[in-house]
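Dock xanthosine-5'-monophosphate; give full complex structure.
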Amino acid sequence: MDPNKRPDDMVRITTPELAQAFIGEQVEALRAQIGDKNVLLALSGGVDSSVVAALLIRAVGRQLICVHVNHGLMRKGESEQVIDVFRNQMDANLVYVDATDRFLDLLAGVAEPERKRKIIGAEFIRVFEEEARKVAGEVDFLAQGTIYPDILESDGVKAHHNVGGLPEDLTFELVEPVKLLFKDEVRVVGRALGLPESMVERQPFPGPGLGVRCLGAITRDRLEALREADAILREEFAEAGLAGKVWQYFVVVPDMRATGVRDGKRAYEWPAIIRAVNTVDAMTATVPELDWALMKRITERILVEVPGICRVAMDLTPKPIGTIEWE
Ligand code: XMP
């Protein structure tokens, strides 16, 4: 039997009861596989890595070493939530690495999106590798949040490799407990493991994070304005019951200024652009019709609460022609 093929008769996990049954089986299988050895996991705080972490904590407790790398491009409160949920609530063995300065120093002056992506991706692997080397002698396994669509998209290739891009001399045996699950099933399992709703229902967030939403060359002050404006958008959407209903929504801040008037004086500040899309597979996307009063409230809050933003615009572009991200 191909371990990377979902059996035809595998029941779709749609209820808490089915999730508990899955968790029970996985906990047993993980204990059998891992024994008294240690496991390493890069914990981004996304749905998949969070569910894998919670499963492994249930199975082997502090034999799991979670590494959370904060690249300084996380959304507001995200790293804090990872620490709170995993270290404080689940008593996880969590290594928190604040690499903000490393990433932002490397990105200074770099405007080209694909170069930004490469720098962020390569530095992420470097930081994780440094942490992996510190524990290499004590760790035999590397856990990954591979899910079934990843396997389908990569013809099973991805699941056989250390996808993290770690060098050859750092080889671990892979542990991939949710590799046969679809995203909706991972969420059901996450809920059954007691993860907070805001983590389980988290919208997709690109690896380079806010780095590709702070358009052009990233500066710390503009990145901070983006983070605050984005947090207001997320808070208001959640309050309006749109979290989990609109597929992806975020703010981008371009590297340009527009004129405004603040306290009777001319202001020359950045615009914030709101992007909200619905999609099934991210290949095409439409812009949902949103409540005008809600959008006006978000606009007012951003203008009043976020220093450096004097204008709010809404992006109505479907994909195609516009991609979901601006960069
Ligand atoms: P686009 O902009 O190509 O985005 O329409 C489609 C989906 O992919 C996400 N995205 C990324 N995810 N690394 C990622 O992990 C990236 O570099 C990246 N770029 C785009 C985007 O957020 C959307 O969900």
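Observed: The beta strands are 38-42, 64-70, 93-98, 139-143, 173-175, 248-252, 258-262, 265-277, 309-314.
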